Amino acid sequence: MKITTDHIHSSNKPLEISHAREFNFLAENLEKKGLNVEALIQKIQALQIAIPSWALGTGGTRFGRFSGGGEPSTLIQKIQDVGILHALNRSSDSISLHIPWDIPQDYDAILQAAAEVEISFDAVNSNTFQDQADQSLSYKFGSLANNDKSIRKLAIEHNKEVIRIGEKLGSKALTVWLADGSSFPGQHSFRKALQNTYESLLEIYQELPSDWKMLIEYKPYEPYFYSTVISDWGTSFLLANKLGDKAFTLVDLGHHLPNTNIEQIVATLMTEGKLGGFHFNDSKYGDDDLTVGSIKPYQLFLIFNELVTGFEETSNPTPAWMIDASHNLKDPMEDLLQSVEAIKLAYAQALIVDRKSLEAAQDGQDVGQGQEILQDAFRTDLRPLVRESIRQSGGAISPIQSYRDLKVRETLIKERGKDSKASGL
Ligand code: PSV
Ligand code: MN
Ligand code: MN
């Protein structure tokens, strides 16, 4: 299925009048506050969030997987699904591949399929947390951190191969997420594991093309339950600093212990110019797969508040934006549309913060006023502004409603069958 401009126009038609009324009302209020609505729209339009190939199918927990039907079972189908999302919201113009789940067979066909739906290739992700079918050695006790040199070598070579694949597709970054860790005290030496990881990453880093980045993800636990080698931003930052200018820390929102102040981490990393990427999701307990903004929207806003000031006041390069979630109950494409909307909304809210007054409140130690200013921005309903930015980009006023009205899932089920399954987690 392909979404055409006719589809967009016909599904926008019934919404146009009420949308225009809501938008005009909001725009007038924003202009009264001294904000430039046109400039806001341009910034919101420019924010593009990559879709990971593994988010397009129904994910599972270790207890079960309940497929929703019509899932993409080939890389071309995954690209087409991102094309559908992008046609609807004009906000996701790239896909992030996971190797070996997405090894391209025919590069020309893959590049053509992507070009047809105006999609490019975001960061490529390596996978050394699973053994592949024909793998001679096992990652059971670690990959880049393993005590066994030959296992480390296998994992290093895999990462180099992922870079070569990404180069053929036009990717510009390698994301490394390592499961390596231990489940029991005494299982391994923390210092040896970290040193092995650094040396392995260095070998991979030396293979990076000059215009590439290495994004180092951290996670406190899971799949191992006692220790993880790269467990927190400090460890990732330390490695990125030691490796060099092309290495950065990647913040995945779901990879923090409860109540961690993620916005402060963002501020610190940006001060040092080392925030390289972002994986969006949300979590209630220790998970990392809930819809962005569905549990802690204020935290998401506070994170964007730091990002927006960081863009203005630091020389941190623009991070690679991506959603990282895998859903086991909802239609994954609907979830991705909801997630992108939540991200854009938080970004828009951060853009309207009255920065001058905030700074004055901070300099004047006016605690109450500082809070008022942030909450005023967060409590402004900016959905009409986000919708208008998407409409002006040629997308749907309500991407989710159009997705439903155009019967996208039903069509995909007809085309691909009820039992088609996406490769991945
Ligand atoms: C595992 O936690 C994970 O969700 C990481 O966040 C990675 O980015 C992703 O899988 C893909 O490897
Ligand atoms: Mn992630
Ligand atoms: Mn994760």
TrEMBL record:
Record-linked PANTHER family: L-RHAMNOSE ISOMERASE
Keyword Cell cycle: no
Swiss-Prot/TrEMBL keywords: Isomerase, Manganese, Metal-binding
Database matches in InterPro entries: L-rhamnose_isomerase, Xyl_isomerase-like_sf
Name of this protein: L-rhamnose isomerase / sugar isomerase
Domain of life of the native organism: Bacteria
Membrane spanning residue stretches: none
GO MF annotation, one: isomerase activity
